[in-house]
Amino acid sequence: PGDPEAGELGLAAVPGRQAAFRQGLEAAVHYARAVGCPRIHVMAGRVPLGTDRAAVAGEMETTFIENLRYTADLLSQEDMIGLLEPINNRITDPRYYLNTPHQAAAILEKVGRPNLKLQLDLFHCQIMDGNLSRNLETYFPLIGHIQIAQVPGRHEPDSPGELNFPYIFELLESLGYTGYVGCEYAPKGDTLEGLGWLRSYWESRGLQHGGTSKAAK
């Protein structure tokens, strides 16, 4: 993430911070190797303070692509995947560089490395673009990780909000998604009580708590 005290939130697309980015990436790989985690979120970073987004967009994209190619080469030696997550700039972070799956997909195409994927957080995607069904279908081949939270409160999936998560989960199943779904939300109260939505979902699918089939038992 760079130096949070200096207002940084990632370095991969920030001009002039390439050396610090590589140092941070090597540290992330060290930790990922130790805990057996095969995926690393490569954070793009923020548009520098005092600069116009449009004016620096080209230089930031060039920096991002250069750093992503370096990342892909390093991660390929570890059999790891690098993930790009668009973060909305309407609510969460007005200065974040990477904002939409369309932007991320275009950059992934330019980089052209199979071990770099899209980390699609449906909270950010809904705020920036909506059209979740079509976006999931369109970008499914690029997706390496999914994250969820209700919109706009960023709480549990069954809290009041815009998104119909039972439908979304069934869509992911129908598309053949077999990866993890990260619960990137802030519980409204107690964390364990807040997981009632997951127990209800398992039961609706004929599963025991823990995701195992009743029929299998």
Overview of the structural elements:
Keywords: Isomerase. This is Putative hydroxypyruvate isomerase. Pfam families: AP_endonuc_2 (PF01261). GO terms for molecular function: hydroxypyruvate isomerase activity. This protein has 8 helices and 5 strands. It is of the alpha/beta class and 217 residues long. The chain has a single domain, classed as TIM Barrel (Alpha-Beta Barrel). Strands 1-2-3-4-5 form a 5-stranded parallel β-sheet. Helix 1 crosses helix 2, helix 2 crosses helix 3 and helix 5 runs parallel beside helix 6. The longest helix has 24 residues. The protein is globular and about 50 Å long.
Which descriptors would you attach to this protein?
globular; alpha/beta; five-stranded parallel sheet; TIM Barrel; 5 strands; 42% helix; 10% strand; single chain
Short summary:
42% of the residues lie in helices and 10% in strands. The protein is built from 8 helices and 5 strands, in the order αβαβαβααβαβαα. It has helices spanning 18-35, 53-76, 101-111, 122-128, 132-139, 165-175, 191-194, 196-204, and strands at 39-41, 81-84, 116-121, 143-148, 181-183.
